[in-house]
Structures are given as C-alpha cells and as structure tokens.
Amino acid sequence: MSLLQKLMAKPWEHAGEMEGIHGGNPVGQPAGRAGLYLFLAVVTSMFLLFTISHQMRSAYPDWRQVSEPGILWFNTAILVLASITLQLARNAARRGARVVSRNGVVLGGVLTLLFIAGQVLAWKQMLAAGFFARENPANAFFYMFTAIHALHLLGGLWFLLGAVRWSIRSPDDARLPMRVELCATYWHFLLLVWFLLFYLLSSS
Amino acid sequence: MAYVAIADRDHEQHLHDPQSFITRYIWSQDHKVIAIQYSLTAISVGLVALVLSLVMRLQLGFPDTFSFITPSEYYQAITLHGMIMVIYLLTALLLGGFGNYLIPLMCGARDMVFPYMNMLSYWVYLLSVLVLCSSFFISGGPTGAGWTLYPPQAVLPGTPGVGGGIVLMLVSLVLFIVAFTMGGLNYVTTVLQARCRGMTMMRMPLAVWGIFTATILGLLAFPALLVSGIMLLLDAVVGTSFFMPALLSMGEESKHTGGSPILFQHLFWFFGHPEVYIVALPAFGVISDLVAVHARKNIFGYRMMVWAILAIGVISFVVWAHHMYVSGMNPYFGFFFATTTLIIAIPTALKVYNWVLTLWRGNIHLTVPMLFVIGFIFTFINGGITGLFLGNVAVDMPLSDTYFVIGHFHMVMGVSPILVIFGSIYHWYPKITGRMLDDRLGRIHFWCTLFGTYAIYLPMHYLGILGLPRRYYAMGDTSFIPDSAQAMNAGISIAAFFVALSQLIFLYNLFRSRTHGKPAGGNPWNATTLEWQTPQTPPVHGNWGAELPVVYRWAYDYSVPGAAQDFIPQTMAPEDVPREAGSSYDGREGTHS
User: Which end is more exposed in chain B, N or C (fewer Cβ atoms within 10 Å of the end residue's Cβ)?
Assistant: First the structure.
C-alpha cells in the first residue's frame, strides 16, 4: 500500500478488519537498518548545511583558496579501499563465510585508521605551510570538515570493533551479517561525504 | 503465517530485564523510567529558568530597586531563561518525557527498539544540562548574549560571559543535540517498526502522530543548530571568522576578517522556526487526544488532523526568515517568507477548528485536563493571531524587538505548550503512578495559572504597540513611553510572581498524590487508547505481559451509537463490544464527524 493510500485510509470504518494489517515493520526493514537510514538522513542534513555555509562564506572577498596537501589523494584511495573491503566482508557474511567476513571487517578498520592518520598528516603539512585556521576561512573549513568527517569515522569504528568482538564471542549469531551490512553501508555513505568535502575543499 | 510483532522477535530486541536497583532506576533501559528521568530533569531545570524570569521581572517591574541585579546579570538571566525554556525544558519534556512514555505504550510495543541508545540519550541530556548549569559557577558567569546567541556580540568583549559562558553554552547545545538524535532515532524507528498487530499508521492516536512528526522535524532541523554552534564555537575559541566580521571592538581592531553574521542568523532560524513546531506538534497531538477523551467524542476530522500535522511539518522548513525581516533582506525574500508564513496558518487553523468542533455537542466533562485543554485552545488562538501580524513584513518592522513579540511568542510557544504539559500530567499521572492527582488543587492550579499568565502577557502586547523595546535593562527617560507603561510593568511583575508561586500548588500535588492520591485503577478516564489497557497500572517492565495487544479499531470510538459503553477500547474485537438492548450495532462501524 502506498503512503498516499495509507494516509487516505478511513480508520473509523471496518473495525476488526485485520487482513493485510500487520502493524509494525511496514516497509519490511529490520529496525537496525531503518535506524541507520534515519541517522544517515540526519548526517546528510548536517553536511548539507555545512556545504551551504561553505558556499555562502566562500563568496566573500576575504576568501583565499587553500592548496590542499597532495596526501589527500592518497587518503582518498585508502578510504575507497576500506569501503570496498567492508563491502566484500558484507558479501562474505551473507554467504556465511564468517572468517573471511571477520578478516574483511578488521582490514576495513585498519584501512580506516590509516585514512585518519593520513588526515592528521595532512593537518601537519597544512600547519607547517602556515595555513592556520584563524588566518583564512578556507583554511578553517578545511580543518573543520576533515575533523568532523574523521569523528564520524571514529564513531563507526566503535561499532566496527563491536562487530569484531561479537564475531569472536558468538560467531554463529544470526544478527552478525546485519551488523556487518550496517557498517558497510555507513562506510559507503562516509566515502560519498568525503568525495563531496574533498571536491568543496579543492574547487572553491 | 502467524504474525510475530517485531518487538517480540528475539533477534530484534532484548528486553534487558533490570537485575538490581541501579539497572532498574538509574542505568535503566526501560522507556518509562527514562521518560520519568527526562521529565524530572526537564522540570528541575525549568524551575531554574522560572526563577531567572523572576529576576528579570524584578528589574523590569521595579527598576533601580534591587542592587543585586546588575545589567550583566539581567542579560545572563534573559539568555538562560530563553534557552532553558525552549530547549532544555519544552523540547526535552515533550519528546524525551512524553515521547518516551507514550510511544511504546500507545503503539503496543514492549519498549523502544534501541533501549541502550535510549538510556544513553538521557545521560547525555543530563550532561548537557550540567554543562549549561556549570556556567553559573565559573568566573564571568553564563553568557548574556540573548537566547539567539547572535554573533558578533555573542563572542565580543563587553557581552557577559564572553569567556567560558558562551563556550559552555555551545558545548552544552552540541551535547543536547547528540542526546536528542539518539532519542529521536528511537522514537521514529519505534513508531515505524514496533507497532503491535492491527495498529496501522492511521489507527495511531494523534499524540503519537504529533510526537513522531516533531521528532522527524527535530532530526532534520537540529543539525542547523549543530552546524552554527560548532562554527560559532570555533570563532569564539580558535579565532576563525565564519560569522565574525572585521570590526573595531573596544577601540581595537578585532582579529576577525569578513565573516557573515547573517549566515549565522539563517542557520539559527532554519533550526529555530521548526523548533516552534517541534514543541507545538506534540502539544497539538496530545491535546487532540485529551479533547476526545474528556468530551467523550471522536476527534473531528482525524484524517485532516494527520494531514495538517504533516503539512505543518513540511511548511515549517520554509518560513524561517520571517524572524529576520529587519536584517536587511531582499524585499522579494520578505514577500516569499510572509506568504509561506500565512500559508502555514491554514493547517494550523484547521486544527483549531477541529478541536472546537470536537467540543461542539460533545459530552464535555470539565475535568482538570479538560480545563487545561480549553485554556490551551483559547491561548493558542490568541498567540496564533498575533503571529499573523508579525508574519507580515510591513507590520513586523515597527513591532520587531518590542514587547509585542514577547507577548506573542510566550502565548503561542510558552503558555500554550505549558498548559498542554499540565493537562497531560493531570491526564496520565494516574497511569504513571496508579494514583489520581488531587482534583481541587488541580482546579486552583489551573485558574491561577490561566488568569496569571494572561495578566502577564496580554498587557505586553499593548506595551509593544507603545514601542517598548525588549531586552532593555532599563528604559530610562524615553519620551514616547508614558509613565503608565512603568505601572503596567510593575503589574506584570506582580502577576509573574503570582503565577510562579501558584506552581507550588502543582508541585505539592505532584509529590503528595504519589502516596496519598486516590487509587486510580487501570483506566480512570474510560479512554480507548492502548496505554490504558495495560494489565498492570503502573505498567511493568515489558508493558504487556506474555502477549502483545491486538488492535481492532481506531483510537476514537467514543459515544458510538448502539454500544453499551461510551467508549470502545482499541483492543476490543467487534464481537466483544457490549451493545445496548435492541441495538443492531455490529461493533464494526465507528462514528465519524
């Protein structure tokens, strides 16, 4: 039943009618997946507003373009690899290859840590080149965007770590593939966000 | 295939049975305990904000009388009063308190779908309150930037609390948003995923619709406050120039370059206006349920009420700049936002008509909750109509930043939701505690609150038309303000103290009835919705015993012709409905108006 049809229903009629009425879970999604999608909507809203702020602020005359450190390209490649690895772990979990899945999750986590370390290195290079946050709004956006993106990845790592611990403690748990799937989805999302941020930082 | 409710599937949700006093009452994952924790914290911090408003009224009513109220303290009081009332009391109480308590019970779920995250939500909220309150005890005190925290003055020397105060305020807001997000994800997912069998979306009570839509609004709007808060924090602490323009401060050139204060205003109000509806929509929903129960009549135009809630939710995202008419915006922008502001009045007015039409020829029981319902409808109409004035650019210009605005938003966003909150507490207290609140004390509390608040806020509209500016510590010798305005200010202050003191009656009632109130039974109001059909009152952990309830009908089967009782619970199957002798009613068709 479409959303419009649902909203057109006349609930005062047909009391007792139960056929086809299942109450909860109307879209057939597990609660964890629904919760994650909702969270991604919140994060999208936040990054969208950051993007708008960046675009509005960059129109002011005091804006000076940042020459972003070259290491960001390397970091981007690492994050792409992390995302691919987690996708492979998700596929492995689906077909029941638990050890492969766990190794994929661990590798994805390590690559993510490498990405974050690379971002810290980018910060150091920026600071060494004299691009301080207070000197120019473009610099400030660089530090803010990279920090907030990294914070989201760290939050994801917490759940990733939980998935690894879970897979060691109870490898046969039926909820495990779902957990890996949610992590992979979150990583893909943050990869897309990073593409957007990287584009903003390097284009304006 | 046999239906298994999602909340009953082992792999979806563990109930986390409490094992000790600590897991039962402190680190509790039970939505009802978390609701009470949220409510008590919100009410406590709300009392702090109430005292701050009295400090303001002392100064405004009797200037040059109380030497302990300095200009700095006055500004700190107005700032913290506003912020606490809007965010830490109303939002937290209506969503964290009512949302937590009502959603699982009204939807027929055992708990929220993510109980651990729900628990974290409360503790992060408490942390945000503690961080905010800690600013009272630091050198320089809390920020006095006004609740809108506009840069550049929010972070410039000369504004009270410019050191630690503004930083703690912003950190507290960030924490609050984190807490709200954790709670909000729970509320929405629970409504979508954990309703019991038979509880279709259109069989949900309007209270759930209101809380559900308001939470979605919050989840999408609070990021704007988060974004502006983080950027302002960096401007204040690191010295960036997101919002801070190049300027001279205290005769010296500031270190900032070319930031945009207007950008902050846009972000703030992109959150700020939906925030009005984040507070209002749960109140609208709750009031719809209360009016039906206590008028013994189905809600008029249920579908229209749902559509209106959704329409208000959508339109609330395109009206924000009506708070910024005086910021120098393009007149075409002003025209656009004035138009959307008038458009949002249509679904809002529709709801008011429907409440009144529900009362029309209803079997009105003038219970204490019903008194608060009627008080709310009156007050909301008053506050709403003055909103039409302020929504128009040409009328807003002279009235902007006057007491007319204060009168308007306190009527529509202060008194109205507070009346709903009181009405709701009188209504649901019997379910929460198993005992009734004292009726006589409730009536005294209602009349004192209603008359008292009107004595405060109606005169403010007049003062605003006179041109009395808001936020001023003292008016001084201002030729266009007559002496009578000062007399009126003194009267308002006396009324404010009267209202504040009358809340002691409520608090006394709340605590005394906990042990001395009349036993309520399971369903003292003869209501139809699920929370009144729990096997135990107060509901125990898991809410429903061995079996989840099954819902057969909508939430508003009151005074159905042919039925023996004037209410049919949602859990009653058509064949079980007691009928009047000789009636041909088959228990299926409800009444609808």
Answer: N
**Are the beta carbons of B156 and B85 closer than 8 angstroms?**
no
SS3 state of residue A17: coil
Token readout for B421 is 């909150």
Mean pLDDT of A76-99: 95
Contacts of A60 in chain B (CB under 8 A): 258-260
Distance, CA of B7 to CA of B270 (rounded, Å): 35
What's the rounded Cα separation, in Å, for the pair B223 and B529? 34
Kindly list the residues from chain A whose CB atom is less than 8 angstroms away from the CB atom of residue B320: none
Q: What are phi and psi of B141, to 5 degrees?
A: 75, -175
Chain B residue closest in CA terms to A63: B258
Cα-based torsion angle of the residue sequence B357, B362, B368, B371 in order, rounded to the nearest 10 degrees? 40
Cis amide prior to B160 (ω within 30 degrees): no
Number of C-beta neighbours around residue B90 at 10 A: 24
CB contact under 8 A, A25 and B189: no
**Taking CB atoms and an 8 Å limit, are A53 and B227 in contact across chains?**
yes
3-state secondary structure B376-388: HHHHHHHHHHHHH
B160: nearest Cα among B136, B177, B181, B176: B136
Alpha carbons B21 and B402: distance in angstroms, whole number: 52
Distance from CA of B227 to the nearest CA of A (A): 6
The answer to whether the CB atoms of B195 and A24 lie below 8 A apart is yes
Which residues does chain A have within 8 Å of residue B103's beta carbon, measured at their own beta carbons? none
Mark yes or no for CB contact A16/B587 under 8 Å: yes
Of the candidates A112, A90, A109, A113, the residue with the CA atom closest to the CA atom of residue A101: A90
Q: Which of A6, A39, A49 to mutate to test the interface with B (most CBs of B within 10 A)?
A: A49
Check CB contact under 8 Å for B234 and A140: yes
What local confidence, expressed as pLDDT, does residue B341 receive?
95
- For B247, the 3-state DSSP assignment is coil
Residue of B5, B6, B198 lying closest to A18 (CB–CB): B198
Q: Which of the two residues, B23 and A45, has the higher pLDDT score?
A: A45
Q: Tell me, what amino acid is at B353? A: Y
Rounded to the nearest 5 percent, the helix, strand and coil shares of chain A are 75, 0, 25
Nearest-Cα distance to chain B for A51, in Å, is 10
pTM flag (> 0.80): yes
Q: Which two tokens stand for residue A114?
A: 């490498």
B473/B160 Cα distance (integer angstroms): 13
The residue with greater pLDDT, B469 or A175, is B469
**Candidate from B108, B263, B306 with C-beta closest to A57:** B263
Distances (CA, A) of B310 to B215, B314, B448: 12, 6, 35
Q: For residues B48 and B88, is the Cβ–Cβ distance under 8 A?
A: no
How far is residue B590's CA from residue A156's CA, in Å, rounded to a whole number? 49
Determine contact, residues A190/A150, Cβ cutoff 8 Å: no
Cβ pair A53:B231 closer than 8 A: yes
- Determine the Cα–Cα distance for residues B30 and B337; give it in Å rounded to an integer: 43
Asked if A13's CB is within 8 angstroms of B302's CB, the reply is no
